[in-house]
Amino acid sequence: MPGLISSNPSPIFISGTPDPTKKTESLNGTNGYLKSASPSSNQLRTRPTTRKTTSEKLPVDESSLDNPDLGPFLLKLARDTISSGESPNKALDYAIRASKSFERSPVVQSLELAMSLHVVAAIYSSLGRLEEAIPVLERSIEVPNIESGLDHALAKFSGYMQLGDTYSIMGQLEQSISCYESGLKIQLEALGESDPRVAETYRYLAEAHMQAMQFEEAENFCKKTLEIHRLHSEPASLEEAADRRLMALVCEAKGDYETALEHLVLSSMVMIANGQDNEVATIDVSIGNIYLSLCRFEEAVFAYQKALTVFKSIRGENHSSVASIFVRLADLYYRTGKLRESKSYCENALRIYTKPSPGFTSEEIATGLTEMRPSMKL
Mapped to the 3 state alphabet, what secondary structure does the chain carry? Predict the structure, then answer.
């Protein structure tokens, strides 16, 4: 799950929407489905658009759709078009025609139809046409017959998860959680409670509940995820480290700072063992935040300074993450009455914010300046 934790104290569950059509659909992947988005990671969401998009319609003889070989061919064309970076509208047309061909085929091809509908919905989502993706995904859920085997069960699971992703992007969290729970039920029946693939679904639900401010439910799913890691993962796995960071966020939100600190330290140890210096620094920022909440100021300064050294080395002196730590240190020293140090860190942060390097977003600048306001009263 990429981008679980940010060095900025901003929402982590509203993910930047990747183009889901650029992923190869597979029922045998990490979690068995094509993701249109994730409830995890940072800052931006694609919003549904009301603008009508002109599709690049290709001339088609409807009678040719009865050819049982046409559906697989068109579905491959759709995927190849996506992979080549060509017009998504052309890929959408191929995918829609593929699904129509599977619908009309005299030979039952429910699994293939479901997969083609997943692709259609993913393209709609990538175009921001989320309202149109929903009925397609609802249809894809109706198609597979669980009694026909594991592939059909996972195809149905895939539809529920992709539908949950779509609702999540639209901000409809209750519907999103409901879809994830329906998908989880199917997955548990097909794979069992301790299958490693179930851990990712637990993680999705933990993030969704966290976003909905339902911390007890989020903690419960985090615990289930960590239990699966205990049973199946290699020691010091990166996946477990990521899930411990999520658990730390849940504990911090509940005010259980000591437990949050414990999970962050364990996660940091794993990252150190795997040579992930950048991630270690990001965790150090989170550790500093916890120490600050506990009024353990010297330990907070030490954690922030460790992260600052790494970020300067890896990302550069004028990176937004460097400015963010300057802001934190300014706030810390302001709270402890060390006004000279606070003013110095404020000036360092302002130097970066007033001459932002490429890649800075206006949101980062606005957030940083807002957080600096108390310290800037000096």
Answer: CCCCCCCCCCCCCCCCCCCHHHCCCCCCCCCCCCCCCCCCCCCCCCCCCCCCCCCCCCCCCHHHHHCCCHHHHHHHHHHHHHHCCCCHHHHHHHHHHHHHHHHHCCCCCHHHHHHHHHHHHHHHHHCCCHHHHHHHHHHHHHCCCHHHCHHHHHHHHHHHHHHHHHHHHCCCHHHHHHHHHHHHHHHHHHHCCCCHHHHHHHHHHHHHHHHCCCHHHHHHHHHHHHHHHHHHCCCCCHHHHHHHHHHHHHHHHCCCHHHHHHHHHHHHHHHHHCCCHHHHHHHHHHHHHHHHHCCCHHHHHHHHHHHHHHHHHHHCCCCHHHHHHHHHHHHHHHHCCCHHHHHHHHHHHHHHHHCCCCCCCHHHHHHHHHHHCCHHHC
Burial (Cβ within 10 Å: 0-12, 13-18, ≥19) of residue 163? buried
Q: What is the CA radius of gyration of the chain?
A: 24
* Global pTM value: 0.77
Cα angle 66-67-72, degrees, rounded to a multiple of 5:
115
* Residues 6+ positions from 109 with CB-CB distance below 8 Å: 68, 71, 102
CATH number assigned to the domain with residue range 1-46+58-191, chosen from the 4 options 3.40.50.2300, 1.10.10.10, 3.40.720.10, 1.25.40.10: 1.25.40.10
Spatial CB neighbours of 223, under 8 Å, sequence gap ≥ 6: 247
Q: Which of 11-15, 83-87, 214-218, 242-246 has the lowest mean pLDDT?
A: 11-15
Phi, psi of 258 (to 5 degrees): -65, -45
Least confident of 47-51, 126-130, 172-176, 285-289: 47-51
* CA angle 221–227–230, rounded 5-degree value: 150
CB 230 within 8 A of CB 196: no
What is the rounded distance in angstroms from the CA atom of residue 99 to the CA atom of residue 293?
Answer: 54
> Of 161, 143, 164, which Cα lies nearest the Cα of 152?
143
Number of CB atoms found within 10 A of residue 28's CB: 9
